């Protein structure tokens, strides 16, 4: 008995990729991604620059002790790591709930398009 292999559709052509990249659905996906990524990146960058400027020019402020040997500079530095983790978590959550379903829809529509007669 011969083993049957699953049938895989033809991969999309370069022209099909170009057509999809110019589609309204892909444009909406790109807009959704940019609406999240650009603002959160700008906020994180501003927060990082704030930390660098304060640590460089406000040494009297950053050297204020908070608890024992821990000072404000150390707290702000550790907050950078916490912020990076929070941004990563937010992006993964956003991608899982918003980007991935839209991406899957676009991918499925590309793979389900019939191949025109005469093209293989």
TrEMBL record:
Entry keywords, A to Z: Membrane, Transmembrane, Transmembrane helix
A Pfam family per the record: DUF485
Signal peptide: none
TM helices/strands, residue ranges: 36-58, 70-92
Protein name in the entry: Putative membrane protein
Organism: Corynebacterium epidermidicanis
